[in-house]
Automatic annotation (TrEMBL):
Keyword Transmembrane assigned: yes
Protein name in UniProt: Olfactory receptor
PANTHER family xref list: OLFACTORY RECEPTOR
Family: Belongs to the G-protein coupled receptor 1 family.
Length: 320
C-alpha cells in the first residue's frame, strides 16, 4: 500500500452530484452531453482553422488556437465523468482519482487565466504600439509567453495538491459537489483545514487579482489611447477586443465568485460551477467566430476546400 493509503482511512469517495432526483439527472444528461460535444467540436474547429489558414498566423490567433486546446482539456477534466455519473445511482471516485482531477482542473483553469491575460497584453501592444508590434510580439516572445502560461498552471496546481495531499482523510466519505474540488474535499478531512484553506485562497486569489489587474489595466490604457483615433479606427480596434472582453467576463466572474471567498455550502456554488465548467468552454468558440470576421472567413474557405475535395473524390469514384 502507498503512503497515501496508510495515512487515510478513505480509499473511495461518494459524490452527491448536482441533483438527487433521477428524472432531473436524466434531463441534465440530455442537456449537458450535446453541450460537451459542442465544446469539443467548436474548439477543435478553431484549432484546425488557425493551424491550416495562412491568414490566421498572427500572435492573436496563435494564442486563440492554444486557448481552444486548453478549453477542451479543462472541460474534459470534469464534464465526461460528471455526465456519465448522471446515469448512475451511486457516484464514486477513488481518493487518488479525486486528487488527479483537482490537479488537472486547476492546472488547465490557471493556464487559461494566464493565456487570457497574455491575449489582453497582445491587444494592448497591437493597438497602442502598432509600429513595434512585430518586434515585441515576435515568434520567440509568443512561445515564451505561452510557456509561462503553462508553467504558471503547473506551479499553481502543485501548490494546491501539496497542501491537500498531506491531510488525513477519515470521512464521512461523501463530497457534496458534482466533481472533486478543494473546498468540498477539505470537508472530509479529519483535521482542522483553516490554514490550508487560507493557503489555497491566497494562492488562487493572488493569481486572480494580478491577472485581473493586468487585464483591466490593458483595456483602460487601450480605451484612453483610442480617444485620439478616428471613429472608424476606434470601431475596428474595439471589435477585435470585444470578443476577448466577453470571454474574460464569462470566465473570471464565476471563478472569482467561487475562489476568492471562504468556502460555503450554498447551492448557488454548484450552479455557478456548472456554468464555468460546462457552458463557458462551449460559448468561447461561438463568441470568437460570431464576432471575428477573419475567423469566419477562414472557416468558410476551409469548408469550401473540404467540399471541393469531397466532390473531387466522388467524381473519381463514380466516374463511369
Amino acid at each position: 500500500m502507498g503512503p497515501m493509503a496508510s495515512r487515510n482511512n478513505l480509499t473511495e469517495l461518494i459524490i452527491t452530484g448536482l441533483f438527487q432526483d433521477p428524472e432531473m439527472q436524466r434531463v441534465c444528461f440530455v442537456v449537458f452531453l450535446p453541450v460537451y460535444l459542442a465544446t469539443v467540436v467548436g474548439n477543435g474547429l478553431i484549432m484546425l482553422t488557425v493551424n491550416v489558414s495562412k491568414s490566421l498566423h498572427s500572435p492573436m490567433y496563435f494564442f486563440l488556437g492554444h486557448l481552444s486546446l486548453v478549453e477542451i482539456s479543462y472541460s474534459s477534466t470534469v464534464v465526461p465523468k460528471f455526465i456519465t455519473d448522471l446515469l448512475t445511482k451511486i457516484k464514486t471516485i477513488s481518493l487518488e482519482g479525486c486528487l488527479v482531477q483537482i490537479f488537472f482542473f486547476h492546472f488547465f483553469g490557471v493556464t487559461e487565466t494566464l493565456l487570457l491575460t497574455v491575449m489582453a497584453y497582445d491587444r494592448y501592444v497591437a493597438i497602442c504600439k502598432p509600429l513595434h508590434y512585430t518586434t515585441i510580439m515576435s515568434r520567440t516572445a509568443c512561445h515564451l509567453l505561452l510557456a509561462v502560461s503553462w508553467l504558471g498552471g503547473i506551479i499553481h496546481s502543485l501548490v494546491q495538491i501539496l497542501v491537500t495531499i498531506r491531510l488525513p482523510f477519515c470521512g464521512p466519505n461523501v463530497i457534496d459537489y458534482f466533481f472533486c474540488d478543494l473546498h468540498p474535499l477539505f470537508r472530509v478531512a479529519c483535521t482542522d483545514t483553516s490554514v490550508e484553506g487560507v493557503i489555497v485562497l491566497a494562492n488562487s486569489g493572488l493569481l486572480s487579482v494580478i491577472s485581473f489587474v493586468i487585464l483591466v489595466s490593458s483595456y483602460i490604457i487601450i480605451l484612453v489611447h483610442l480617444r485620439n483615433h478616428s471613429a472608424e479606427g476606434r470601431c475596428k480596434a474595439l471589435s477585435t477586443c470585444a470578443s476577448h472582453i466577453m470571454v474574460v467576463t464569462l470566465f473570471f466572474g464565476p471563478c472569482m465568485f467561487l475562489y476568492m471567498r471562504p468556502s460555503s455550502t450554498f447551492t448557488v456554488d454548484k450552479l455557478v460551477a456548472i456554468f464555468y465548467t460546462v457552458f463557458t468552454p462551449m460559448l468561447n468558440p461561438i463568441i470568437y467566430t460570431l464576432r471575428n470576421a477573419e475567423v469566419k472567413h477562414a472557416m468558410r474557405r476551409l469548408w469550401g476546400k473540404k467540399h471541393a475535395v469531397v466532390k473531387k473524390v466522388a467524381d473519381l469514384w463514380f466516374k463511369p
